[in-house]
Amino acid sequence: MPPCCLQEVKLMFPGAQRMNRGNHEVAALVRACKANNVSDLVIVHETRGQPDGLVICHLPFGPTAYFTLYNVVMRHDVPNIGTMSEAYPHLIFHNFTSRLGKRVSNILKYLFPVPKDDSRRVITFANQEDFISFRHHTYKKTDHKNVELTEVGPRFEMKLYMIKLGTLENEGTAEVEWRHHPYTHTAKKRKFLSLQ
C-alpha cells in the first residue's frame, strides 16, 4: 500500500502505529500485537494502489470483522484540506438498528478512545442499505446557533461481508458468527444492519 495511504489510516485512529506488513506472516503480527498489549489490529488491503478491503481484529480474543471498501477518496484528493487534528473524535452511528447493526457499531466504536467534551473532531458511520459511509469532519461554532463543518478525509463506503469469533491467527478454525450470502434469492431485498 502506498505510504500516504498508511499515514492517513494511522491518523484516523488516535494512538495508532502504522506498519507496512512486507513479508511478515499475519500470525506473527497477531502474536507480536498480543505480546505488546495492542488492543486492535487493523489491516487495509489494496489492489494497484487503491484500498479495497478492511479487516478489524479486536485483541486478544476477537471478533474479527471483514469489510469491502468502495469509493475511497484519500485526504490528498480532497481539495482545500488542512491539517488533521489528532484529538479523540466524537462518533456518530446512524441507522444501526438491527441486532447485527448494533454488533457492527460496537466493533467500530471500540477502535476509538473516549473523546473529551471539547473535541472538535467528528467521525460518522452512516448505514444506508447495508453500505456504511465513513465521513471525517472537524467543526467550529460560527455563533451560538450555527456550526461550520470542514471535511478532513478520507471518505469511503464499506460493506460488511463476514464476522468471525476468533482472531486472525486462527482464521481457518474460527467460528463464523455472520456471513453475507449475496447469491440467495432474497439477498437483494433484505437489509441486515437496520430494521428497514
Automatic annotation (TrEMBL):
SMART domains (UniProt xref): Brix
SUPFAM superfamilies referenced in this protein's UniProt entry, alphabetically: Class II aaRS ABD-related
Keywords: Ribosome biogenesis, rRNA processing
Pfam families linked: Brix
Top-level taxon: Eukaryota
Gene3D superfamilies: Probable brix-domain ribosomal biogenesis protein
Molecular function, one GO term: snoRNA binding
InterPro entries given in the database record: Brix (IPR007109), IMP4/RPF1 (IPR044281), Ser/Thr-sp_prot-phosphatase (IPR006186)
GO BP term, example: rRNA processing
Subcellular locations according to the entry: Nucleus, Nucleolus
Signal peptide residue numbers: none
Domain Brix, chain residue ranges per copy: 1-169
Any one cellular-component term (Gene Ontology): nucleoplasm
Keyword check for Metal-binding: no
Assembly mode: Part of the small subunit (SSU) processome, composed of more than 70 proteins and the RNA chaperone small nucleolar RNA (snoRNA) U3. Component of a heterotrimeric complex containing IMP3, IMP4 and MPHOSPH10. Interacts with MPHOSPH10.
Role noted for this protein: Component of the 60-80S U3 small nucleolar ribonucleoprotein (U3 snoRNP). Required for the early cleavages during pre-18S ribosomal RNA processing. Part of the small subunit (SSU) processome, first precursor of the small eukaryotic ribosomal subunit. During the assembly of the SSU processome in the nucleolus, many ribosome biogenesis factors, an RNA chaperone and ribosomal proteins associate with the nascent pre-rRNA and work in concert to generate RNA folding, modifications, rearrangements and cleavage as well as targeted degradation of pre-ribosomal RNA by the RNA exosome.
Name of the protein: Brix domain-containing protein
Organism field: Gambusia affinis
